[in-house]
Amino acid sequence: MNNSQPNLDRLAAERAQEIIRRTGGKAASEVDNTVTKSLGVLQENGVYACFLYLLAKEKESRDVVVEEMLNLLDGLGFGWGMPKGIGAESVLKHLTENVTKDLERLLLAKETLEQMLIYARYGAKARD
């Protein structure tokens, strides 16, 4: 049976597992720190601010976290697609033109991103 609605918890878990897998060569505490700070910005200031924070402030694990967050957004099935690259200008333009347009979808995206970052945080702690 084909279900048009993605399982958001599974999508969040898969993307979190990819963060942990792809950052395997880095110290778990560094990954945990990046993910925890990103989660805090996401919860306090929103999706756009979280990406902006990662792109402007974080160095450790930044690209992996940004890529997996974009993969999660693409996996939601809203037809947002992916930006042309993971540079700040491309990512932020993509968010502004696609993700932030519809408030209901934006709020769903935020909740799902939060779940992914929570899973990644615990995944990093479990790896330690």
What keyword list fits this structure?
128 residues, 6 helices, globular, mainly alpha, Peroxidase, domain 1
* CATH-level-2 architecture: Orthogonal Bundle
Largest sheet: none
pLDDT averaged over residues = 94
Number of helices: 6
Percent helix: over 70%
- Which descriptor suits the 3D outline? globular
Low-confidence stretches: none
SS-based class? mainly alpha
The arrangement of helices and strands along the chain is HHHHHH
CATH topology: Peroxidase, domain 1
**Radius of gyration of CA atoms, rounded to a whole number:** 14 Å
Number of domains: 1
Could you characterize what this model shows?
The protein is an all-alpha fold. The chain has a single domain, classed as AF1862-like domain (Peroxidase, domain 1), CATH 1.10.520. It has six helices and no strands. The chain has helices at residues 8-22, 28-45, 47-57, 62-75, 88-99, 103-127. The model has no long low-confidence stretch (mean pLDDT 94).
Blueprint (SSEs and pairs):
Blueprint (H helix, E strand, L loop, with lengths): L7 H15 L5 H18 L1 H11 L4 H14 L12 H12 L3 H25 L1
What is the structure about, briefly put?
With 128 residues, this protein is mostly helical. It is built from 6 helices and no strands.
